[in-house]
Amino acid sequence: MTTRDRTSVAAPTVAATKALTQSRRRLGLSDWLRRPRARQDLITAFLFLLPSLIVFGVFTYYALGFNVYLSTVRWNFIAPVKVNVGLENYQRLFADRRFWTVVRNTFYYALGSVSLGMILGLGLALLLNQQIKARSFFRTLIFSPYITTIAAIALLWIWIFDPTYGLFNYILGLVGIDGPRWLTDVKWAMPALIIMNVWRTMGYDMVIFLAGLTAIPTEFYEAAEIDGANRIARFRYITLPLLSPTTFFIMVTSLIGALQVFDQVAVMTAGGPVDATKVFNYYIYEQAFAYFRAGNGAAVAMVLFVIILALTGFQFLFSRRWVHYE
Question: Would you call 81 helix, strand, or coil by DSSP?
Answer without folding.
Answer: coil
